[in-house]
Amino acid sequence: MGKRFTISFLIIIGLLTLTFFVACARQEKGVAIEAKPLKMAEAKPQKEAAPAAKTEEVKTQASTATQVTKEEKVPSGAALYEQPVKPLTPVECARCHYPIFKDLKESKSKHRFECTKCHQQFHVYNPIKKNWEEIMPKCERCHQLPHGKDFPKCLKCHENPHSPLSIPFDVLVQKRKVGKKEVIQCALCHKNEANEMNAHVSKHNEVGCQGCHAEKHGYIPNCLDCHEPHVEGQTYEDCLICHSPHSPTVIKVYPEETDNAVCGSCHTEIYENLKTHHTKHSDLYCATCHTKHGYIPKCQDCHGEPHSADLHKKFPDCLKCHIDPHKLPTLTSR
User: Fold this and answer.
1) Which of 139, 143, 147 is nearest to 185 (CA)?
2) Nearest to 254 by CA among 242, 246, 267
3) Which one, of 164, 169, 251, lies nearest residue 211 by Cα?
């Protein structure tokens, strides 16, 4: 009996305890529900800003996703060479191709224009296809074949298209067959000079183009490198007044005031006669009578007929008496 009472008592105590905890829990829940509107009201300003922050976060995530997508789309390997490339300016090209840029700048050739004028296809070399010949510009697209069908390979002479006049001299002096003739390659461009040398053969023909222009293509030598000056202080420019380098024996028209010593450097005996046998002729410039090289004037051009008609009739040639006009002796005995 006592045992049953104890069990019943414990059950009642347990139920009361459970009821108490349930009541406490309900009370706490009610407080939380009542406080909730206040909490929301206090936090309202912050909640309005929250969507903006969230939007920025979403944008950032979207941007990152886009970048990832773009990166995934960038081709790699062989596919990279198939992509079109935006044309660049010469300055931009020069960042990588500076030696070529320098050649173009220093050569002062007609090739100094936009890189894309020639390189219409750029950065398209494909090491797999090995398409070098296909993509490189062809000279004949602008120049045709200026030296004729016998010379189809421009780069044999013009090795550097970015400095086309920098031609190796050992290439230029080689002979090439043109039709039935063999010509030195210099003559292909310098036709006037070649024709001049062939028409007026001199010792310059013996040394050839390389004898004077051996330094490099386009080098103009100084005459005084090989030849002694006619008079002291004579310059290279003085030489060219009378002489053409490619036909030096054909003396051009020269100024009347040309120093007699210049003429005397070749015509030594005549020059010495004028100095030794002083006459009125000695006071004149050689060019006063000899208006061009090799011209022999007539005495009558200056002197008319200074003697009697009978004497001129008997001696129509002045030099019968005045044997040498540069020392003017007279015949005193017959």
Assistant:
1) 147
2) 242
3) 169
Contact status, residue 208 vs residue 184, Cβ threshold 8 Å: yes
Token pair in block for residue 83 = 């992509």
Asked if residues 215 and 265 have their Cβ atoms less than 8 Å apart, the reply is: no
The pLDDT, as a whole number, for residue 43 is 44
3-state secondary structure 41-92: HHHHHHHHHHHHHHHHHHHHHHHHHHHHHHHHHCCCHHHHHHCCCCCCCHHH
Spatial CB neighbours of 281, under 8 Å, sequence gap ≥ 6 = 274, 289, 325, 326, 328
The 10 Å CB-count burial string (b at 16+, else e) for 162-178 is bbbebbeeeebeeebeb
Instruction: Please give the pLDDT value at position 141.
Output: 80
- For every residue of 204-263, DSSP letters joined together read HHHHHHHHHS-SSTT----GGGTSPPSSTT--HHHHHHH-BTTBTTSPPP--TT--HHHH
Q: Is 214 left (phi over 0), alpha (psi -120 to 50) or beta?
A: alpha
CA atoms lying within 13 Å on the CB side of residue 134: 8
Helix or strand or coil: residue 176?
strand
Task: Identify which of 209, 196, 296 has the alpha carbon closest to the alpha carbon of residue 244.
Answer: 196
Q: Can you give the pTM of this predicted structure?
A: 0.46
Enumerate the domain spans of the chain.
Answer: 83-163, 260-320
The number of angstroms, rounded, from the C-alpha of 225 to the middle of its chain's C-alpha atoms is: 29
Q: What is the pLDDT of residue 246?
A: 92
The segments of the chain whose pLDDT lies below 50 read 31-50, 53-54, 58, 62, 64-66, 68-70, 333-334
Q: Do 274 and 260 contact (CB within 8 A), yes or no?
A: yes
* Beta partners for residue 183, in sequence order: 176
